[in-house]
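subagent[fold] <- orchestrator: predict structure for attached chain, return tokens only, no commentary.
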Amino acid sequence: MAIDLRKVEPLGSKSVLLEQAMRRHRNNGGYTHDKKDLHSDMDMSDMVTPDFEWLNEDKTALKNLVAQMDASIGQMAQQMRTLEEQSSKSRSMVEKEQQLLFKQIRTLNGLLKKQVDIFSSVERQMSDIEIKQNSIIPQVGIGLVAGLMSAVTILVTAPWMTVLIERLQ
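subagent[fold] -> orchestrator:
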């Protein structure tokens, strides 16, 4: 057996509404189509008076919240644009500084290479001079010492040699 709840006032408590629907169903033996009967058996003592002021307050609060969110989103968008502009400026400045730094590094590398070439050239020249000096002076020194020794040897041994040669003859 079905109970028709379509014609029951929806602002009452569920238990009261169910009782009214069941009473109406028992009294009429089925569905009630008369509006006079619908309002006559309603118990109005348990009915809640509709108060839609909270709905207006909530609507106002929601509008304020949406306005605040829109303002916050607008501020965030502005801050993001500012941040993007600053980051692009700083990125371009960093790129320019890097290019300048690379040019300076290339210049310094070129200068260092030239200095190394100059130092190696000077070192080669110095070693050539030392070799020339070392080869001449020792040879002259050795030659002088050898010559002096042979002269001294001849001088020292000459008298003895003459005596030795005279005795041998």
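orchestrator: received. Logging for downstream: The two ends are 175 Å apart (CA to CA). The chain has a mean pLDDT of 78.
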